[in-house]
């Protein structure tokens, strides 16, 4: 099946190409945008690929204008693919009423509850549809893929990696939600998208999944600012520390003094994360 | 006279501090915002300072979220101050009607024509008021100052440097307007702010000023993308080449293959510009 992809924007950046694309998604049954950075090396051969999952309220744009990631991606020859954070423009009841649910807040799961089911399937979109589509349309080597993200997207990266260890070979996060089941953002999202049976929530809870399934592909690298407004109420890295210790998963949790939840924090440590992923993806 | 400065935002970034501030300006007779990046070295001693002048439609925010400049500024110990591009919120007739005149388009000059005069005095604001205020309130060494900018702001940086060689010791630009008098953006702005007597325009035209006054403090470093939509119609670097050759001013004009007018272009060559300025400011 040939999927039509429209180019929204394409521009030279650090010798490579930053693009934004749009396609009709089967998983979400609406138009979806995603961004792709291709380093200069991609003109010669297929390159390893990193998926970036953004946080609440973000689109595919925040990362590509704010993270500064293209510089080292160009140097080390890594593609970076940045999906949107949810379906858009469906006009479902309640879709645009809050910043932490509905549009901009897909939580990287497959919804089972009306009216979200059938559209809010970001888990399938990321792990299946976009993964295949990107491999077919861009000069990337999907056998060397890693995943990382921020906040809601850091939680998404952790859950998606742990559930698909054959597909993603390295994982890291900036200020991730560490257990969606145990924070207000997550409880609202899991309840709304999956209903009130908490058994279903465990399939999309990072701490629970790490404990039950483990993770051996790479250590888990986490940066977390000490002045992050959401540190104690939403993100709660102690949940990750506990389950990694119990499950024998190697966690490098770096508390970064004085940093907040913003892209100023993300940009400050982006090079470290790219270096971390490059180590695992380049050695494959 | 003590000026009150309000902190709009302050956050840790690459070990230093990115802030946005607001004050009541005497030069523009309205509230003005500006951004300051202080590198970690500023906690120990006063650091050299670079002023960044933005292009049409920008505020103080574009540079600080998109340029990626903080990384090398932190490494090399340089402060970067980013003013807004015009007065705001005065509700002058026509102020908000076009992207290239009025709000967001101050052109770094002192207006003489009603209703702009008395407010649209960005030349005095940058060279006098903000320069003094920054020296008084932040740990910067104003005897080691440079200036750079983009598009309208690149033109502003060139004119301001050339007219104040005792104050700015290095100058560079990304895709600058090279002669405001000879491009549609500039003709509209100079006519609107200064009236139709072209003698007055020469005081704010980069090519004219470089030819009449020269510039010996540093070479002039210019990066210009070959795929920039505005290259032939508005920016016209050949005017700069001509006057620099005639006036004996050293110009390094680098045509960058495939790049456009965006911050993706700016970010790609930001490190080179910071290195250029560091060389001149650090040796003072």
TrEMBL record, chains A, B:
**Which EC number applies?**
3.1.2.12
**Gene Ontology cellular component list:** cytosol
Q: Which GO terms describe its biological process?
A: formaldehyde catabolic process
What is a single molecular function from GO for this protein?
A: S-formylglutathione hydrolase activity
The record's top EC class is hydrolase
The record's annotation in Gene3D superfamilies points to: alpha/beta hydrolase (3.40.50.1820)
Q: Where does the record place the catalytic residues? A: 151, 228, 261
Q: Entry's Pfam families?
A: Esterase
| Catalysis performed (reactions) | S-formylglutathione + H2O = formate + glutathione + H(+)
Q: What protein family does this chain belong to?
A: Belongs to the esterase D family.
What is the name listed in the Swiss-Prot or TrEMBL entry for this protein?
A: S-formylglutathione hydrolase
Lineage of origin: Bacteria, Pseudomonadati, Pseudomonadota, Gammaproteobacteria, Legionellales
Q: Which gene encodes it?
A: yeiG
């Amino acid at each position: 099946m040939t999927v039509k992809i429209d180019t929204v924007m394409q521009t030279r950046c650090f010798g490579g190409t930053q693009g934004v694309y749009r396609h009709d998604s089967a998983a979400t049954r609406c138009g979806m945008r995603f961004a792709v950075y291709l380093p200069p090396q991609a003109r010669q051969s297929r390159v390893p690929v990193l998926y970036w999952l953004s946080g609440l309220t973000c689109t595919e744009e925040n990362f590509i204008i704010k993270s500064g990631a293209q510089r080292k991606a160009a140097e080390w020859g890594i593609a970076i693919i940045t999906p949107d954070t949810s379906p858009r423009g469906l006009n479902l009841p309640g879709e645009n009423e809050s910043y932490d649910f509905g549009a901009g807040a897909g939580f990287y799961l497959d919804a089972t509850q009306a009216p979200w089911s059938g559209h809010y399937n970001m888990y399938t979109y990321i792990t299946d549809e976009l993964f295949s589509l990107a491999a077919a349309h861009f000069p990337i080597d999907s056998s060397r893929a890693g995943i990382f993200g921020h906040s809601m997207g850091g939680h998404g990266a952790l859950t998606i990696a742990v559930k698909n260890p054959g597909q993603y070979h390295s994982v890291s996060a900036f200020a991730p939600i560490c257990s969606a089941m145990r924070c207000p953002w997550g409880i609202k999202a899991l309840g709304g998208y999956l209903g009130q049976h908490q058994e279903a929530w465990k399939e999309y809870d990072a701490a629970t999944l790490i404990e039950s399934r483990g993770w051996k592909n790479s250590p888990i690298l986490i940066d977390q600012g000490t002045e992050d407004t959401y540190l104690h109420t939403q993100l709660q890295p102690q949940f990750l520390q506990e389950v990694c210790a119990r499950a024998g998963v190697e966690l490098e949790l770096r508390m970064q003094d004085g940093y907040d939840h913003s892209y100023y924090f993300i940009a400050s440590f982006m090079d470290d994360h790219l270096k971390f992923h490059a180590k695992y993806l380049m050695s494959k």
